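Standup notes
- DV: blocked on the single-chain target, sequence here:
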Amino acid sequence: MKNSLGIKDRNFYINSLYLYLSHFADYGMGFIILPFIARMLGPIEIGRIGIAQTFGAFILLLIQFGFSLYAVREVARLRDDKIKSRNFISHIFGFKILLIPFILLISMLLFLFLPIYRDLTFYLCIVLVGSIAQGMIPNWYFEGIEEIKTLSIVKTVFRLCAIIFILILVKNEDDAWMVLFAYSLSSICQFFFLFLKMKRKIGSLKMTLAIPIKQIFKSSKFSFFISAIPTIYQNICLIILSYMVSPVLIGYYFASSKIYLGFNNLFSPLGQAFFPKLSNLEYIDSKLASKEIQKFLPIMFLLGTSFFTVLYFLSDKIVILLLGVEYIPSSNILRAFAFVLPLTAISHVIGRQWLMAKSKDSTYALIQTISSTTGISILLIFINQYKLIAVPFSLIAYEILSITLIAFFLLKQKHA
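- DV (later): unblocked, structure below
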């Protein structure tokens, strides 16, 4: 059938490769300079950068408002209708612009009332600007129309410029702000380039105050919650750690989580290449979509198991290579994080892919809420006894519960 997804589809693998290039720009290049900045800045300054970047992830979450999922799905469905696509994209950008004043207000309140942020205002302001710019980048448009090549090349070029900037100018811990500045400037440049390229494809956007805010909010709110929950989870974990452990231990945590997240994010390119096709196929023939999911799951699980093997058995060597001997306490945390990866592979496929393609956004958001609440509770219970190791323990519980609840829902739907 022409509309079959086809895991053997050549375009699927080409798009996946370009998305891996895109993720290499975000995470692989970060790995390349991690030994440099870890040794140059030290654990305490690395921890401060980690706090700022976690705040940036929260701001990015707000400005994206779930569009990285919802908008990809809608663009994929509307891509053959230029007028509807342009109207949809105009509404998305108008909605994002309206969000900016609220984001600035929320940021100001966080600066004032959260002790963890009070001494990092300069860092946070740099990250705030960069995160807003990154959130405005129309990644979702290029993913929806499956023009991944443009997206990945643009991101790689500008991230490479940021890396060169850091390698040349960062000399000691006083230059730590330049790391954040380089990434923020890179995001601003990406936004302008890709926005103008998108505009040339679809024509001028009709920016109007008559934005169907209620309709957009209703359509994307659960996608927002799905994207928000993991980021909120990370921020809550970091806030809990800031009260319970020393700044040096926060530095160790951030360093190990940086490596873990680098592996974790390697799931995304395959998922991002798969999701637009799956959404389109689910819209046409849900039985065929179900068969393709069954083919995709073993691939992702094998990938997750491979990541587990590398991190668990080579954690000491990876930490010494990327961070230096000074960070060797991070290896035990990294080893614990390794157990999360095969579980994430499963939950990613049956949750973020299958439930979202079926438009079961509300169900998936509820499952994530229950699972994250359970995970945070486990962290609070075990943080005093196990310190940093309690974080991966809580993530393992989060993933196991997510998988169990999703599987229960899918089986119930199947027999309904």
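- Follow-up: The CA atoms of residues 372 and 398 lie 6 Å apart.
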